[in-house]
Amino acid sequence: MSDTRAPQHAASDRLWERAQRYLPGGVTANARIHRSTGRPFLAERAAGGRVWDVDGREFIDLNMSFGASMLGHGHPAVREAVIRATELGIMCGYETEHQTRLAERIAEVIPSAELVRFAGSGTETTWHALRTAKVATGRSRVVKFEGHFHGYNDSLGYSFWPTLDQAGPAAAPNTVPESEGMPPAGIADTIVLPWNDAAALEAVFAAHGPEIAAVIMEPVNIDSGTILPLPGYLEAAREITSRHGSVLIFDEILSGFRTGIGGAQGLYGVTPDMTTLGKTLGGGTALSAFVGSRDVMSAVAPLGKAIHSGTYNAHLIPIMAGLAFLDVATDPGFYPALEAMQATFYPALQAAFDRAGLPVLVHAKGMRFTLLFGMDRAPVRYRDILAHDTDTATRFYGLALEEGVYFHAAWHHGFSAMHTTADLDEALVKIERAARRLAAARPGAAL
Ligand SMILES: Cc1ncc(COP(=O)(O)O)c(C=O)c1O
After folding, report:
1. Domain count within the chain
2. What pLDDT score does 235 carry?
């Protein structure tokens, strides 16, 4: 644990005490508790690739709102778009030209998008995507994969990060609810499989094919250590689901826009029936979408019987911000510049851990990366990451905070389009210092 009693933490201490009086657990989302400090990171403001806490301390941000702020904090194009929305009257509950324009832009860049519906969060959009798939197929069951995260809704809130005890047999995992209070019927409707195993998918369709409405997956499993699809796996999933008349959903809330404008589906050349988008789509504002083929999306009301409605649907502020995001991200120089930063930063980060003598594998895909503590091989399936040394990781993230780098203690991290080379060079020095402090404190370290 970091030293939270130091005088330089006085404002954080006061706010943390106040927050606990009025917010359950002192936070507005469970995941905001930082495992290393046992409290949230209490921010005052952020700009570009940096964030300041309420005590005025400055940090290089390598969390970037869990990936939502890939453009950078307060990107000028997004700020301008938000101002434009305020000038138009902060309209909500109206259809305007801007929603249509954003849907057109998404359909231009996302291979699976013919029709688009907007929502606010990832949790909301995966839930609606699944409902749509159920109505489109007239079936009720879903296949999801161990270690794949789709938000905390009651339809998909299973087996994100089960312990080995909970998880059951590797070939036929248990369906493990991620929260108390979920409807018991959900367990029967949710089939959990190991990912990257085409034979397991084939077998479940042989047994239950006519009941399976959808197969949902993260096409790059960023939420469990950035596990990449094995060659041919996405193609096999595409073929099996098509053959059985089931809807293939790629949850690209994290993988979308990380490796290029077309997401993982563009990168790997496999087009699902439906896709969920979120995080960076709104340039850091609350915007998500479920999109898909005209055929499947025609199940959405008023064309079909899957209800999707809401006062705040496609609120003008995130819609304008989403248009700004796509304008920036479709600039021909955008992804090449990010790729150049990735090509320098990731090897330098690996070298910093190696020099410090701390066993960490830096494992990245595009704009998100994972730090695998105590592992020397990239994971292929969820259970591989159970070898990760969580205690050492937790201590490292606490020391990094002390050195001035904000990582959340999570499975993925990232920089933004507004991080400068100087930001990343400074982060490397500070990270190496934190790693050296930790390596020196480890049992058996040379004195
Ligand atoms: C792949 C994936 N799906 C869904 C979600 C849920 O999104 P939200 O946090 O906006 O509800 C996340 C969030 O991290 C995610 O990574």
Report:
1. 1
2. 98
CA of 105 to the centre of ligand 1 (A): 22
Query: Ligand 1 within 6 A of 122 CB?
Result: yes
Lowest mean pLDDT among 181-185, 205-209, 217-221: 181-185
- Residue 291 is part of which domain span? 76-329
| Interval between CA 338 and ligand 1 midpoint (Å) | 23
d(CA 160, CA 243): 27
Residue nearest to atom 8 of ligand 1 (CA): 122
Answer whether 254 contacts ligand 1 (Cβ < 6 A).
Answer: yes
257 CB near ligand 1 (under 6 Å): no
Q: What is the pLDDT of residue 19?
A: 97
Give yes or no for residue 126 CB within 6 A of ligand 1: yes
Whole-number CA gyration radius for the chain: 22
How do residues 100-142 score in pLDDT, each as one tens digit? 999 999 999 999 999 999 999 999 999 999 999 999 999 999 9
CA distances from 170 to 63, 177, 197, 375, 423 (A): 31, 17, 11, 20, 42
- Residue 235 in any domain: the answer is yes
Over 50: is that where the pLDDT of 264 sits?
A: yes
Strands 274-277 and 360-365: unpaired
CB atoms within 10 A of CB 416: 24
User: Do the domain assignments include residue 141?
Assistant: yes
Q: Is 253 in the pocket of ligand 1 (CB under 6 A)?
A: yes
- The set of long-range contacts for 23-26, using a CB threshold of 8 Å and a minimum separation of 24, is none
Q: At 167, which CATH number?
A: 3.40.640.10
* 13 within a domain of the structure (yes/no): no
Summarize pLDDT for 407-423 with one digit per residue, the tens. Answer: 999 999 999 999 999 99
Scored b (16 or more CB within 10 A) or e, 313-323 reads bbbbbbbbbbb
Please give the Cα distance from 418 to 219 (Å, whole number).
Answer: 26
Q: What is the mean pLDDT of residues 193-214?
A: 98
| Residue 65 forms part of a structural domain | no
Q: Over range 214-226, report the average pLDDT.
A: 98
pLDDT of residue 1: 45
Are the C-beta atoms of 345 and 414 separated by less than 8 Å? no
